[in-house]
Amino acid sequence: MNGKCDGNLPCYSCASNELNCTYSAPKKRGIPPGYLEKLEKTNERLFRALSLLVNNVQGGDAAIKDVANQLNQLDSNSDEGRLLYDDSRWLLELLNIEDCVPSVRKRGRDEHSKDKDPSKEREGSSQTPVPESVEFRSLGPSSGFDDTFIANFERLQLTHSTFDVERWKNVIAPYSPKQMLDNFFIHIHPAFPMVNKNGMLAFSSAEAQKKTCRSCLYWTLVFIGFLYGLPGKYGDTKHSAQTVHDISISTLDCQHTVEGVQALLLQSLYFLGRGYWSNSWIALGNALHMAKGLDMNDKNVSGLSVIHRRTWKCCCLIDTIIAGRLGRLPQISYVEYFDDDEPLLSDEEMELWPRPGNINGPCPARTVTLFNAQCTLNRTANKFLTVTNRKDYPGYLSEQEKTVFLQTCVNELHNWFVTLPPEVSFQHLFNPDFVSPSILPHFAHLVLGYLTVVSVLIVAGATEVSPLLPSASGMINMCLNVVRNIHPYRKPLPDFEYFMTLCLTASMKLYIQTNRASSIADYEEFRSVVEYLKEFSSMWGMSSVSYQYFVNLMRKDNANEGFINSAIQDFFNKGCREAALLGQKLKADEIKVDGVWSSDLTRCKETTSIVMQYAGLQGIESVYLSELRERSMGKLEGLKVSEAKALCEREGKGFHNYGEPRTAAAERLNMAFDGIVDKSLELNHDTVMIVSHGGVISKFVKHVVDNGFQFSSSIKDSDIKVPHNTSVTTILVDKADKSGLITGFGDASHLGDNIKEVDQHEK
């Protein structure tokens, strides 16, 4: 027990007598070393600053007198006085004055009483109002701390924010923040109209110096606008990404407000466009948590302001866009979307946009109409991604359930398209000969968003998309019409790369399925859209990654040499067409199938789906097993065969020395085959189809031969090798004793003469 009271624990006398212990002096007695010298320097510098203000500023004398009168009336210990001090601490750094007061959130008097009722607030722990520059979170009982913890500690974090306005101004020089704000409100704001435009444009330079959520939003807008530069030029992106990261951390430091949510949302879009996917996902998650903490998603709150309501809608929009780009589940469910459209505010809806060169005069922005349409479209996309981005899609759905689900999405999307208000309809953009003097960026955003949802439907396996597209080439034609006519000066939004990439992927799939004799490199419109990705990469770095991806696809040697374990092999080596031919043969031969098992890798599931579609087997449920995967190739994954061979030669190894051990892979596959046989016998199936990979099939055959199965007379042991894509191997199993006969191996007769020797690296 203390010999005397130290301001924290009761003194011996008070504790012994069970009396209240009140201590009003500071926590520690005495003056810290150097404190008086520091105080003298501070007073001297402040006095000089006031003298300069009086002598060099017109009306400075009167201003000082007015401040003195206000100061005399202000109680420095009041909440108002403390807040005023804290909000002005930035002046100390500006004047190069050392702060003599570590924190304005001082401890008050500590009272110790035998009255232990926690419901009674202790005077010493009374909560001091926290300024906007400090993050504030109320602490629940599970934290182990009360609110005095907040009053005594700054935010606990590994990465500390750097709020350096002067450095930021130097980064955007010679541009001014006002110019960059104008860029933001021209290009980005109409697609995501949540920011108080007038409030930001009126934001003073003094306010921008203080670290608050509002100033973090201000600088976020400035640096997004900075990428758009001036007409015909782009801003320097070298230092801006790190700056936006600093602003993002600073946003989390501040008291949470709607402006903080807006700042984080726009930062997540910025990071997405620049190709920093992890930062994008983290900023988005922080934005959504902050928004929900502010109850912005509560539909039952009456009288929500326009800004609050639109900000939550933008949370939904951006969440679905980023989740789609990253192939993840949205963090917001479609049931959390607001149902009502935004009212059409005439000054915002009819704001005029000048066309380049004043061709045909200005046109109305239609910002609100387009925003309402975008929100409805996005809700459909959210419902769709919630299903298709699951790790077990489509395995947890039967073929019939999958078909019904995809058709429901197609119908919902078609209904959205045909009910668009006439002033924002874009049916005319399907015409490849259409020429437009300009397409506003937020209108382009809506059109490309629609094409993206259609594209995901196609990639996910939807077949009846004719209500959404007039032809297989309609998608790429519309995409090309949009990107080459974006106004002003063809500077894209940060998510255009994602939209264009999905359009290219779906168009490639449709093209290969309908143009068997042609290469995708011969598809002129496809190449044109790819070139626009290259053009846009000068602003949004992720576009350069996608550009290189599609350039690699168009190299003909990729089609000739093939990829090891590459998910794009289906598209490029005509695997989809080969699967369709196999399905047609099974249907013509009237093969009855009772059950289907498949590897759960993407391209194998794609093959299974196409075969079943063309064989008329949609009513049968497919079972997708990870055990049927081919052997992982480790560091050889994704390399062309020639590249993999070269790597093996350099390292003095063979294919089998990389990735999953051969013995482990063989054991896994053998157990899978035995399990399928047992399950088929249990279900009394007569004929089952197993869809897997070439190396896997050859190992199946070796396994059953080792277990006593026989070859038919037409098959030799030397014939057993890695079979051609979509080739058929037939094994008869006796239900009584599980003995078997291999009656056919590697039958690719459905492919005609178009058969190429298969590399035997996995034999």
TrEMBL record:
Cellular localization per UniProt: Nucleus
Record's protein name: Xylanolytic transcriptional activator regulatory domain-containing protein
Annotated segments matching region Disordered: 105-139
Residue intervals of the Xylanolytic transcriptional activator regulatory domain: 280-349
Chain positions recorded as substrate binding sites: 603
Biased composition (Basic and acidic residues): 108-124
Gene3D superfamilies linked: Phosphoglycerate mutase-like, Zn(2)-C6 fungal-type DNA-binding domain
Organism: Trichomonascus ciferrii
Taxonomic lineage: Eukaryota, Fungi, Dikarya, Ascomycota, Saccharomycotina
InterPro entries: AtrR-like, His_Pase_superF_clade-1, His_PPase_superfam, XnlR_reg_dom, Zn2-C6_fun-type_DNA-bd_sf, Zn2Cys6_DnaBD
Coiled-coil residues: none
Presence of keyword DNA-binding: yes
Keywords: DNA-binding, Metal-binding, Nucleus
UniProt-listed GO biological process terms: DNA-templated transcription
Cited Pfam families: Fungal_trans, His_Phos_1, Zn_clus
Matching CDD domains: fungal_TF_MHR, GAL4, HP_PGM_like
Cellular component terms per the entry's GO annotation: nucleus
GO molecular function, one term: zinc ion binding
